[in-house]
């Protein structure tokens, strides 16, 4: 079937390049080989010439939310607030095996949280076939906005977060989630006439 399809659009290319219909009794393969433009073109180039594009056959999305647990006011309880504008990434380790050799590669796909602290990262197609993705891909926090109470100090004790498969449909769509990622700081707002208090940070997940 693929061979018939390939010969079909090769026939179209030859028709366009040759400026007309092929002569009777000439096989498409003979006509293609005699055309130097087609003969030395790669498969990708022939595909573009025929008007065919690369079709995305599957979709893999990793989602989650990032929150900061902090004392926003003096003597107030610990409050949880979303962290918008944070830089997050999905880190995947992929090992490709070719005959008797294997090669490991590390990939990092970046994204940002929205105003609600949520992020949705669409993984590129070459990572969709990674087996046991829950064990090979993790969510990492790469940077926080300076105005966040948790800021960079909350990242000192942070560890990567595993992902979990939420859904998988027959049309090639898979959704993974890291769920809620909480960065917690125990720093309280200091009195304007007093020195700063020391603080500790913790990493909590839902």
TrEMBL record:
Instruction: Provide the taxonomic classification.
Output: Eukaryota, Viridiplantae, Streptophyta, Embryophyta, Tracheophyta
Q: What is this protein called?
A: Pollen Ole e 1 allergen and extensin family protein
Residues spanning the membrane: 6-26
Region (Disordered) residue spans: 183-206
Keyword Membrane: yes or no? yes
Entry keywords, A to Z? Membrane, Transmembrane, Transmembrane helix
Stored Pfam families: Pollen_Ole_e_1
For bias type Basic residues, the affected ranges are 184-200
